[in-house]
Amino acid sequence: MTPPPAVVLLIEDDVPMRRFLRTALHAHAWRVIEAATAREGLAQAAGRNPDVILLDLGLPDGDGLEVAPRLRRSTRAPIIVISARGRERDKVAALDLGADDYLTKPFGVPELLARMRVALRHASRPADAPEAPVFEAGQVRVDLVRRRVFRAGDEVHLTPTEYKLLATMIRHAGRVATHRQLLEEVWGANYVGQTHYLRVYMAQLRHKLEPDPARPRLLATEPGVGYRLREG
Amino acid sequence: MERTREYARAAAILALATALALPFRGRINTIDVAMLYLLAVVAVATLSRRGPALLACVLAIAAFDYLFVPPYSTFDVHDADYLFTFGVMFVVALLMTGLTGRIREQAREASERQRRTAALYELDQELVGAVTQAEVVGIAERHIGRAGGGTARFVLTDREGAPPAEPSWPCDGMFESVPVRVAAAWVHQSGAVAGLGTAHCGEAEALVCPVRTAGRRFGVVALLPQPGGRLPSAEEAETVEALAGHTALVLERVALHEQHEAARAEVEAERLRTSLLSSLSHDLRTPLGTIEGAASSLLASSVPEEADGLSLEARRELADTILEESRRMTRLVSNLLDMVRVETGSLAVRKSWQPIEEVLGVTLIRLEEGLRDHPVEVHLPTGLPLVPIDEVLVEQVFVNLLENAARYTPPGTRLDVAAWRDEGAVVVEVADRGPGLPGGDEELVFRKFYRADGTPGGSAAGGAGLGLTICRGIVTAHGGRIWAEPRPGGGSAFRFTLPLDGGPPEPVPADPADA
After folding, report:
1. B354:A195 CB<8 A
2. Exposed end of chain A (fewer CB within 10 Å): N or C?
3. How far B310 CA sits from the closest chain A CA (Å)?
4. What ipTM was estimated for this complex?
């Protein structure tokens, strides 16, 4: 017997966009619940218990920015925000207000599915569950128990802050981590304005871990938003 | 003052002649004494005007008669010959003053002419560079004021198209005075000089000259003498009039130039509008047509009875085309939107300090596919400072520059990205070894809708001609500068500066060396 299909709540007012997403997601064995307005979306989220929520930021009856925290209060399902390029501030605000990840229009279906898989994985792991003891991506291997980092088999020496930043990124693996989240988790709440600390340490990490720091593949930049640790 | 001095000098010369001759009285011929006095009179006539010369003449005759013509110490004349001598002395004095007076007048006129020429020349020198009416008026007011020994002020009619009648006379400064305004109105109507020191409206405090050419009346210029100063001389008044006439010629030139520029801008704007329409309709319709065609083919092939009309490969090809073309439209639309933001000034720049390497990294990853055939080499020195930039916008600059480089250079051409610190800024360079820009196009390429091949509306390279204009808008919004130049050794180089202003960020705290 196959497991019941995962349920995605799609809150999007544009009909063609909904139609496209419904078709694509059906084809990949997702069950799709649709909502065209923020009100409807909030009701569905409370009543239907979706596994993932896709939230468009440009809804006619409500600012997506208000919807995200209200959704967060009624469900633990991960929220993936969808918005246009150039609205980085909105994305950051939504992420800092409880959304889990974002996608910029236009996007491809493979990208969307990858985001949803990551979101599901993070959601299915209880907050206090121990992390996998070893993280591996590309040439990089991190032993989280012994706090040792290897690149192509050779041990790489990281400073304490660099290691802390890397470990935080691993905790968010696959998901975007905003500047604010990273600063808060690595340096503390008093440092959320010091974005350049983060950028300088991220550059150092890249120079130690990336084969070509000018084209980072592991520690990707999300311009205007934050960083994403790519697993694939 | 001058006059009194001249009379005193005449008397002094006569006294000197007398003093020279007196000791020899009776020992030399009285005719020789007469000659000496004649010499003195001629001297005075040469040096002075008619009045002092006549005085000298009278004094000479009186002194000669009183002191040297017997009987001495009386004005009695016994010898009638002396009356003839007096007569000759008088006539000679008169002739001499007339002659020297004319010479002096000519010399004065010559120097006045020279002064006027010099004034005109100086005015001309300064007016060469003037391109606006305000500049011309400013310069001319200064020169006319200096030439007339006072303050000059222009009042001009409205621009071309306004009726040539009444300028709206201002009511401040020297135009506060009603007689000056009356004189100005009369001058503007008649084209003749009026006001202070002239026959017409002489009660006005200022001299008013017309500013007009044969074909056009521009207004008037008024000259107010320095408070308490002397009136402008007739010659100065003429100089002022000449300068005013000359200024009118320059104003005419400026007006024609402005008209010409306006017409040119209009033509250019029209060209841009046409170019925008043709490029928009082409660039938007082409991909839409392709998408529609490909999608309808796919749809037709999914009807059961025609299901095997298209091979799997063909369907894939169609889907691929749709994807490609949608991406092209996305690029175009975001370019247009960026352009609107740049043009309307609604480009919000949110700067934060960051390494240029990070923005460049994002760009290189994003363009990976588009730059498949153009290897990019990155040259960033260690120790390059953080720069205060909006990463989303600067990423767009990199994207546009690199896409352009890839578009206009043959496949396989290497692209170089470099950055270095220079004074208070970081300079970034995107350079290629392609064919380079056509000479003289280094500035043109930043113009809206400009395309290197010069064809508006759908070049082979497929750009809308907006990328570099957007780059300039973004860099300018950062307080920087962007330009293109030929690359030494071939190819072209685009450079932009990112100023390091706003105070550097707090230094990043050092990490303890070991965990």
Report:
1. yes
2. N
3. 21
4. 0.89
